Amino acid sequence: MSRRVLASSFAAVSLAAALAAAPAWAEDNTDKVFETFRQDAFGDRPIEAGSALLSMDAPKRAEDAAIVPIGVTVALPAGDPRNISKVTLIVDENPAPVAATFTLGQKRKEFALTTRLRVNAYSSVRAVLETDDGELHMTSRFVKASGGCSAPALKDADQALANLGQLKFRPIAENASAKPEGASAASHMSEAQLMIRHPNYSGLQMDPIDRSYIPARFVNNIVVKQGDQTVFTMEGGISLSEDPSIQFSYLADGGPVTVKASDTEGVEFSGALSAKKSGS
User: Fold this and answer.
1) DSSP character string of the chain
2) Any signal peptide, and if so, which residues (predicted)?
3) Structure pTM?
């Protein structure tokens, strides 16, 4: 066998070994990536990692990197005097790691949230809880996915703009399991799902016709209210998926639930929670 063939074979084996090792390297070094932007996001405050106050559900390997389902549940212990202040979702390896920050009202002791994120490279996905005394608690899952931020939009631009801002806002079901220990019957939780038609352009997607980059335009603000009380406000970024979908818990029997949202172009959308169908 010639030296050239041997060299080519060695290079191919080395490349294969490097590619095989890359995910393991990424997972081993994930906390180092987080440390590069942690101070910008949270300052010098300590963060309790692996906190029992919150849990996350996320796939180990995503079927579609542009719509990775993420679920977060927060529950403070019975008798804890604190309330939930914020829940922040982070994708370490994304160009803009902070995907969304949810600021809660209603002096909540528990909160459940499900949404869909873009994951641009093998990455830790994190949820950071802030209680109203300023303490930070974190949980994370490593997700194998790549290319989510640059993945082409599912709809063409004309279709996306024609349906821009259409809302589906509906109740899911009473969430009996979310009722905190010792809570009264009137304070248990229900769940709703909010879906907004919006391309949520990341600024990294390419127009298939002229090969130019589509300018970023995404839903960056959502306010959900129950009567006069704020359930949560959300500040979002490019990591929220196309047609953002947010499922969340809210106080049952606490009055009508409404939503107002806007995108980075200042276009506003609004709606109200539809009536629960009988038998649902």
Assistant:
1) --HHHHHHHHHHHHHHHHHHHHHHHHHHTHHHHHHTTHHHHHTT--EEET-TTEEEE--SB-S-TTSEEEEEEEEPPTT----EEEEEEEETTSSS-EEEEEEE-TT-SEEEEEEEE---SSEEEEEEEEETTS-EEEEEEEEB---TTTSPPSS-HHHHHHTTT-EEEEEEEEEGGGPPTT--GGG-EEEEEEEE----B-S--B-TTT-PBPPPB-EEEEEEEETTEEEEEEEE-TTBPSS-EEEEEEETTS--EEEEEEETT--EEEEEPPPPPTT-
2) 1-26
3) 0.83
